[in-house]
Design brief:
The complex is a heterodimer of chains A (407) and B (230).
Chain A: H1 2-14, H2 16-55, E1 58-62, E2 75-76, H3 79-86, E3 91-106, E4 109-118, H4 120-127, E5 133-136, E6 146-149, H5 150-156, E7 163-169, E8 175-186, H6 191-196, E9 197-201, H7 202-209, E10 216-217, E11 219-224, H8 230-240, E12 245-249, H9 250-253, H10 255-293, H11 295-303, H12 308-343, E13 346-347, H13 350-358, E14 364-365, H14 371-388, H15 390-398, H16 401-405
Parallel strand pairs in A: 4-9, 6-8
Antiparallel strand pairs in A: 1-11, 1-12, 2-10, 3-4, 3-7, 3-11, 5-8, 6-9, 7-8, 13-14
Helix pairs in contact in A: 1-12, 2-10, 2-12, 2-14, 10-14, 12-14, 12-15
Chain B: E1 4-13, E2 20-30, E3 35-39, H1 46-53, E4 61-66, E5 69-70, H2 76-86, E6 87-90, H3 102-112, H4 117-130, H5 146-159, E7 164-168, H6 176-193, E8 196-201, H7 204-209, E9 212-217, E10 220-226
Helix pairs in contact in B: 3-4, 3-5, 4-5, 5-6
The chains are: A alpha+beta (407), B alpha/beta (230).
């Protein structure tokens, strides 16, 4: 086998220029594929990360809440739940949340809003909400102040220090109402959130929808240390909690994002396929040339007693060596570019930026540095290159020695 | 028993289009240790006969027995293996493996025969020394002259200890001096190892060294002379 590898290696360097050309086709294919896929997966990861930072990797609800998100499907937090979740390894944070809809009013202006009851300290640790405050201050203690989105404040003509009136339906059919001082105005990437979201201290929100008993929640957002263990942790939590609760993964909660990614990924795969076809033709044509040029050498080898299957190995080794050289250079060229663009994402402007903002995503193009991007493209390019050696394999198992000698 | 026995060999090329009869009923026996030249004008069928005797081609009709084995009964794979262990080749254009050195070319056939590394290295060097190019063992074919390449080809052909060696116009591309040296080497090998050589040639110098001259024309043997005492 060593001799076969030696022959393959030397065969390659007999025509240095052609070998470099073939390896360059591999380099180019891998480089472009890596850049393309890294950019795509980077934006997918960004979309998912933005979504997950809002909803958590998993959410615990009262059974049926996911299908019918009504305040009447809220539940009362029990200390035993906290202990149960704390006992599960791999959970980094649990954020209690209470969401309800209400009518807001200031002066002559009224608007329907989404009230999100949060623990300001924990929420800030999770998604750095305090950094989004553009006026006023971020609440730190237990009080009844609220934070408004900048577009909502603009619509209601409110500023920091003004008082907001909220009126809506509470838990179990009661009327929810209250007056709240605006302590700050935030600006999030999402236009929709800026137009309709009101952040309120969780305790205040609970009192707003049901002042008769404390601890009312609509969700417990669970954040995982290792998102790859999503399914196993989901099962673990389901098993640990009783059947009154449902555990929903971000994949269900953010199914619209996943759908968008799926559609986009298909278009990316089509582009990639075109790229691969072009590259494969480049590789195939040089391998074809190599085979034709070496017909006489093959004929010598078979005539003196070398089995054709061993010749096939020589051909496979040749293609493999070229591919590996191309892959190594391709990885060496693409990796620094991808790493740079991962840490320095390309800013997006114009309409595309607006679209990103609507999805609550920062308008930048980060590149993914996940191992699967590199691994999958490397394997595809390697397989593609090796597929190009199919022709030599077929030729070598069939060629006529005497005809080959004439070339 | 003869090493080679060709019985009523016919070879027709382009059977379905414009048939060309290259061999028309050739009967030939080669005995062990013979130094035989097959001679005849261009297109007479010398190379076709050698290719068939060497198992590189199969006859359209007739049988080739090599020490009792009918080559027609062998599969393609068995035929390759048969050539490896029984037949040595020296071609007109040397046909060495261009990426291997003289030593590696000679060793290669032994490796195919699965001879242990130490033994094959020793044998390759011994043969290269015998053909007079011990000082060029690490040269690749492109770094050797035609005569030197042909010597390596002879060493390679002998390395596998074949039952016989087929040499198709081995001196066609060589100058006078190289031709004489090569013929001396082959004659020496014939004497020393009792190797059987079958040449196809136009070269009078080869014919002068041959123990037997088989003349072929229009695909038929028209003469067969033996020269004792050469």
């Amino acid at each position: 086998m060593r001799t076969l590898i030696k022959i393959a290696w030397r065969n390659l360097w007999r025509n240095r220029r052609r070998t470099i050309l073939t390896a360059s086709a591999v380099v180019l294919a891998l480089f472009l594929a890596l850049i393309m896929r890294s950019m795509q997966f980077g934006s997918y990861e960004q979309m998912i990360s933005a979504g997950v930072s809002q909803v958590g990797d998993l959410q615990v609800h009262d059974t049926g809440y996911q299908a019918n998100q009504s305040i009447d499907r809220a539940f009362f937090y029990r200390k035993s739940m906290g202990k149960t979740l704390a006992g599960i390894q791999g959970i980094t944070r649990v954020l209690p949340g209470l969401k309800t809809f209400s009518l807001s009013s200031y002066g002559k202006q009224t608007k329907g809003v989404l009230i999100s009851g949060i623990n300001p300290v924990l929420q800030n640790q999770q998604n750095h909400l305090s950094g989004k405050i553009i006026q006023g201050k971020y609440p730190t203690g237990d009080h009844n102040d609220v934070l408004l989105g900048d577009k909502l404040a603009e619509f209601l003509k409110m500023k920091v220090g003004d008082t907001l009136v909220l009126l809506g339906q509470g838990y179990r059919g009661i009327t929810a109402y209250g007056i709240y001082k605006v302590s700050g105005i935030f600006h999030l990437p999402s236009l929709q959130m800026n137009s309709e979201l009101v952040y309120m201290n969780l305790k205040a929100a609970q009192d707003f929808v049901y002042p008769y008993q404390s601890g009312l929640l609509t969700s417990l957002s669970v954040f995982l240390k290792d998102p790859a263990k999503l399914e196993s942790k989901k099962k673990e939590i389901e098993h640990a909690l009783d059947s009154d609760f449902e555990v929903i993964s971000w994949k269900t909660m953010l199914s619209d994002i996943l759908q968008t990614i799926k559609v986009d990924n298909i278009s990316g795969q089509i582009m990639l396929l075109i790229l691969y076809i072009i590259a494969a033709f480049g590789i195939f044509s040089t391998i074809l040339m190599m085979t034709m040029e070496k017909r006489r050498q093959y004929a010598i080898m078979v005539s003196i007693g070398m089995e054709r299957r061993r010749l096939v190995w020589v051909s496979i080794f040749e293609t493999f060596i070229i591919s590996i050289i191309g892959i190594i250079i391709g990885l060496l060229l693409a990796s620094p570019v991808i790493y740079y663009l991962h840490f320095h994402p390309i800013p997006i402007t114009g309409d595309m930026a607006k679209m990103y903002l609507e999805f609550n995503i920062e308008p930048v193009l980060p590149f993914s540095i996940k191992a699967h991007v590199f691994l999958s493209q490397t394997i595809i390019v390697l397989v593609l290159s090796l597929l190009s050696s199919l022709y030599p394999i077929i030729y070598l198992s069939r060629f006529n020695i005497l005809n080959a000698f004439r070339h | 028993m003869s090493i080679i026995e060709a019985k009523n060999i016919y070879k027709v090329y382009n059977e379905t289009k414009v048939p060309v009869n290259a061999l028309n009923g050739v009967d030939l026996k080669i005995e062990e240790g013979e130094f035989t030249a097959i001679v005849g004008p261009s297109g007479s069928g010398k190379t076709t006969l050698l290719n068939i005797l060497g198992g590189l081609d199969l006859p359209s009709k007739g049988d080739i027995f090599i020490e009792g084995t009918n080559l027609k009964d062998l599969s393609s794979r068995q035929l390759i293996n048969f050539r490896l262990h029984n037949i040595g080749f020296v071609f007109q254009s040397y046909n060495l493996i261009p990426v291997l050195t003289a030593k590696e070319n000679t060793e290669f056939i032994l490796e195919l025969q699965k001879v242990p590394k130490k033994e094959r290295m020793q044998k390759a060097l011994e043969l290269l020394e015998a053909v007079g190019i011990a000082d060029k063992v690490d040269h690749k074919p492109g770094q050797l002259s035609g005569g030197q390449q042909q010597r390596v080809a002879v060493a390679r052909a002998l390395a596998s200890q074949p039952r016989f060696i087929i040499a198709d116009e081995p001196t066609a591309n060589l100058d006078s001096r190289s031709t004489n040296e090569l013929l001396e080497i082959m004659a020496e090998m014939n004497r020393k190892y009792h190797s059987t050589f079958i040449f196809a040639t136009h070269d009078q110098r080869v014919m002068d060294k041959a123990h037997r001259i088989v003349t072929i024309d229009d695909g038929k043997i028209i003469g067969d002379e033996t020269f004792k005492g050469r």
